[in-house]
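Design a sequence for this backbone.
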C-alpha cells in the first residue's frame, strides 16, 4: 500500500512539474492572446489559497490578463483586483521565490499607470538581479532572462548579467 502512495506522489509531482514547465513557456505569450489567457483561466479554475504559491501567482497574473481583455469596465476592475490580491498573497506566502517575484514584476510593468500597481518594480528587479544566478531550473532561467532582456526596467549593464 505504501508503494502505491509513493507512486501516486511521483506521478503527481512530475505531472505538476510538466504543467509548470508548460505554464512558464506559455505565460509570456498570454499577454497578447485571449485564447491562451482563456485556456489558462480554465486550467487554473481549481487553484485557490491552499494551492502552491507559484500557481496562485500565475492565476493572479492570468486574472489581470482577463481584465485586459474584458469588455465591461466592471469586469476589468474586478478581474484586476482579484488578480493583484492573489499575486500579493503568493508573495506574502513565499517572499523569497524568484518566480513569484518575476510574475509580480511582469504584471506591474505591464499594468496601466492609472491603476497604481507599480510600487514593487524596483524591489522585484533587485531581487531578480541578486537571485538569478541561484535558479536551478533551465526553463525558469530562460523565461526570466527573456523577460529581463525585453524589460524597460533593466538597463544594458544589468542585462549583461543575463547574457
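Sequence:
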Amino acid at each position: 500500500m505504501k508503494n502505491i502512495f509513493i507512486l501516486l506522489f511521483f506521478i503527481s509531482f512530475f505531472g505538476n512539474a510538466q504543467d509548470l514547465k508548460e505554464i512558464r513557456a506559455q505565460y509570456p505569450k498570454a499577454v497578447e492572446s485571449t485564447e491562451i489567457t482563456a485556456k489558462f483561466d480554465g486550467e487554473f479554475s481549481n487553484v485557490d489559497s491552499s494551492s502552491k504559491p507559484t500557481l496562485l501567482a500565475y492565476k493572479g497574473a492570468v486574472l489581470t490578463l482577463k481584465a485586459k481583455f474584458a469588455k465591461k469596465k466592471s469586469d476589468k476592475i474586478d478581474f484586476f483586483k482579484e488578480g493583484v490580491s492573489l499575486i500579493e498573497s503568493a508573495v506574502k506566502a513565499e517572499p523569497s521565490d524568484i518566480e513569484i517575484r518575476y510574475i509580480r514584476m511582469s504584471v506591474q510593468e505591464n499594468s496601466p499607470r492609472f491603476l497604481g500597481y507599480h510600487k514593487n518594480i524596483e524591489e522585484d528587479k533587485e531581487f531578480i538581479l541578486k537571485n538569478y544566478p541561484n535558479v536551478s531550473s533551465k526553463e525558469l532561467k530562460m523565461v526570466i532572462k527573456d523577460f529581463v532582456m525585453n524589460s524597460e526596467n533593466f538597463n544594458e549593464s544589468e542585462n549583461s548579467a543575463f547574457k
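Residues 125 and 153 are 8 Å apart (CA to CA).
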